[in-house]
Structure formats: C-alpha cells, structure tokens
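Milestone 3.1: sequence recovery, worked example.
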C-alpha cells in the first residue's frame, strides 16, 4: 500500500464516506452564466449573469485532493459548464483522479462543440442532460424556445459517439403515468438505462423561489454533499444558489476552497451526529 492509499484508508473523510455519513461526490460550480434562463433556475443564471468561474487549475486540484481525502467522484454543474472553452480538456484531466458527472443543458452540441464533447467518451465520464417532458411545449415552457428540439437532436449524437448520457427531469410536482411513461419511453429509445434517468423535484431556491415553484428545503433536506464554488464551499449542490442577484450564504461552510481538506472537514463537523440518510428527505441525492 502506498503512503496515499494508507492515508485514504484511515482518514476521517474516507471513513465518513465509507460509512455513508458523508456522500462520496464533491460538486463544483464551474461557472454561473448560461445561454438559457429557465424559470426554476436555482442560480438565476442567464447570459448576463456574473460568471463566478472556477479556474481549470482549481478544478483539477479539487479532483486530485478529493481523491486523496477519500471522496469517490466529482460532479460539475453551473450555469452551463459547456460555455467554458477549456472544459473538455479539464474534465479529461480530472477523470485521471475521479469519475466525473457533468451536468449541462444539452443545447450546445453542434459543429465543433459536438466533436469536442465527443472526446468525453470515457467509461468514468457521464453527461447529465436536462429534459423535463416528452412534449416540446411543456418542456420549453420552463426552459425556453427550441430547448426540446435541441436536446432530442443532441442526445443521440452524443450516444452515437460513445458518450455516456444520463437524463435529469425536474418537475414542479409528482408526474402521473400519462406524462412519465412516454417520457421514460423516449429516454429508453436512446438506449439510456432506467437508472440513468433521474426524476427530481424543483427546489424552491433562486429563481424558483421568485416564481413560487417547487418544494421548500432546509439544510437537512438537502444531501450533504460538499459543493465548491469560486465564492466558497457549501452544504450541498443546492446550497450556492442566487437570489435577487446575490449569492445565498445560508448554507455556506467556509470561504476557503483549497486545500479541499478545509471545506471537507468543515462539512464533516457540520453533519457530525446525523444518522446516515438523514439529509436526504426529499430524495434528491
Ligand atoms: S436551470 Fe440550468 S440550463 Fe436553466 S438557466 Fe439555470 S443553469 Fe441554465
């Protein structure tokens, strides 16, 4: 066993991950701007949003240090990560350390961008693309015109190129079978396995709060994943939201993001004593 493996085997973070007290995935908000402006967006993202970008070097360091601490994966979200021209190269560097789940809106995969994304065909990289309905008009109500058309064109193109795609459906309330069954059939028609189709509620933070959409959530409702942004580290990927143009800090753990041991230990202290699963009452882990 190497020195690093010895440290992982006995570190407090690794122990907490192994026992299920601490979720294994570390989230990164790569940026906050987006080509869309969805009505339920947690971060009030739009093309005019403050970018709040992590650098490529920070993202690679977070992946490397997270592995050393005993975390088991990283997730990248935003904003729209694929607006960053250096994203693909950075993800390929990060996956040298940990598996990467990359959330995106699926609208930017044409021409050169599609071929750049095709380089992400890797067993430990998955692209999680948002699609809320099998009906274009319902999907596009929250996400904007032409969103459905772009997503249903992009997903098969990515899959043809060997990229692993997951689909995430965000809903304002429970979906009945007349809506869910055809949506699941559409997703299955692309060859996406049922376990790679996630259906979760809108969380009432950010722009969703402004419009009164979704479910109210307090800290213990939100999975206690470590979430790192350019502005600090937060409790959960639903933590670093934006309301009225200002970053919400109710779930801020620390302004220090590197070394990762600082925010990781702050999170561990915050969840100390909570039983496994007590942070996932909304089923959105
Ligand atoms: S929900 Fe996602 S795709 Fe929609 S505006 Fe926000 S970051 Fe962009």
């Amino acid at each position: 066993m190497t020195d690093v493996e010895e440290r992982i085997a006995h570190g407090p973070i690794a122990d907490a991950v192994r026992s299920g007290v601490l979720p294994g995935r570390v989230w990164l908000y790569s940026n906050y701007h987006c080509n869309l402006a969805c009505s339920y967006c947690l971060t009030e993202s739009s093309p005019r949003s403050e970018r709040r970008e992590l650098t490529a070097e920070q993202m690679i360091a977070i992946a490397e240090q997270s592995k050393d601490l005993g975390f088991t994966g990283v997730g990248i979200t935003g904003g729209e990560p694929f607006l960053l021209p250096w994203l693909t190269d950075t993800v390929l560097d990060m996956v040298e350390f940990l598996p990467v789940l990359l959330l995106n809106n699926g609208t930017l995969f044409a021409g050169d961008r599609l071929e750049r994304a095709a380089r992400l065909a890797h067993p430990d990289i998955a692209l999680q693309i948002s699609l809320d309905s099998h009906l274009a008009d319902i999907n596009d109500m929250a996400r904007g015109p032409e969103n459905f058309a772009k997503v249903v064109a992009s997903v098969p193109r990515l899959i043809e190129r060997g990229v692993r795609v997951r689909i995430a459906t965000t809903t304002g309330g429970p979906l009945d079978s007349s809506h869910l069954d055809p949506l699941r059939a559409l997703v299955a028609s692309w060859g996406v396995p049922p376990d790679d189709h996630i259906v979760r509620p809108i969380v009432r933070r950010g722009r969703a709060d402004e419009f009164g959409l979704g479910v109210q959530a307090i800290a213990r409702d939100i999975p206690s994943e470590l979430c790192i942004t350019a502005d600090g580290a937060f409790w959960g990927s639903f933590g670093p939201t934006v309301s009225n143009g200002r970053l919400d800090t109710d779930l801020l753990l620390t302004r220090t993001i590197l070394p990762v041991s600082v925010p990781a230990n702050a999170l561990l202290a915050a969840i100390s004593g909570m039983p496994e699963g007590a942070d996932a009452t909304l089923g959105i882990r």
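The longest helix spans residues 56-69. The chain has one domain: 3-272.
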